[in-house]
Design goal:
The mean pLDDT is 88. The longest helix has 15 residues, at 196-210. The strands form three sheets. This protein has a six-stranded antiparallel β-sheet with strand order 4-1-7-10-8-9. Strands 2-3 form a two-stranded antiparallel sheet. With 225 residues, it is of the alpha+beta class. Helix content is 28%, strand content 27%.
Length: 225
């Protein structure tokens, strides 16, 4: 069984580049703030708001900014919105999108889901650092909300989970060619792994290259229309 690990409103990253002679196209549909723009990110909290953090394509001003902060604060206090910027329930993400993101049709709603076999590893990584009354990934995973039948599965994201509940994606390190050469693993059109087993095979190499204090886990990614 897969459990809900959050709903994220993101703009997928698309760019071209060259690394070690390998030309790649980044097609990453990831929930990580390392490579994706999140709506909202930490700037959705009034007490962490900084104009510099808000994406340039989202020129939000008063009174809309005040309404946005009031909305996220209310959800946060109800354990329905967590740091670093995700919704516990799909309906709340859709409501936020309808209220504040009508001028950004490129924003997509992604849900991520963690298999029950990885639940203890994820909660152990985050839970011990969680402050009281501070909803985060551990708070949601402990509720063990089953993955919904709705949504289109678009692949699996190998995410390095940090103790604050944020993620570093494997795609941040541009390892697509190494995955192909070393393991015969190809990523799909969304820049994601096609199955969980490939994520697990690539995890030790990714951990070595990233050299970060993170726990690397495979998350199923669903796209919701």
């Amino acid at each position: 069984m897969y459990y809900t690990a959050g709903y994220y409103l993101v703009i997928p990253k698309h760019e071209r580049g060259t690394v070690n002679g390998h030309t790649y196209t980044s097609r990453v549909w990831s929930v990580s703030t390392f490579i994706s723009q999140l709506y909202p990110g930490n700037w959705g909290f009034s007490w962490q708001y900084s104009k510099r953090q808000v994406p340039k394509n989202f020129p939000l001003v008063e009174p809309a900014l005040g309404r946005l902060h009031a909305s996220t604060t209310a959800l946060f206090e109800q354990n329905k919105y967590g740091a670093p910027g995700f919704f516990f329930e799909r309906k709340d993400a859709l409501t936020f999108q309808e209220q504040f993101l009508v001028d950004l049709p490129q924003v997509k709603l992604l849900g991520i889901f963690l298999h029950e076999s990885h639940l203890s590893a994820a909660t152990a990584e985050v839970e011990q650092h969680s402050a009281p009354n501070w909803p985060n990934l551990a708070t949601l995973l402990q509720q063990q909300v089953p993955e919904p039948e709705a949504g289109q599965t678009i692949g699996f994201d190998l995410l390095g989970l940090f103790d604050d509940g944020s993620y570093e994606p494997s795609s941040y390190h541009i390892l697509e060619e190494e995955y192909r050469t070393l393991f015969g693993i190809g990523l799909n059109d969304y820049g994601l792994f096609t199955n969980e087993a490939d994520c697990q095979r690539a995890a030790p190499h990714t951990d070595k290259v990233a050299d970060e204090p993170a726990t690397w886990l495979p998350f199923k990614v669903k796209l919701f229309a």
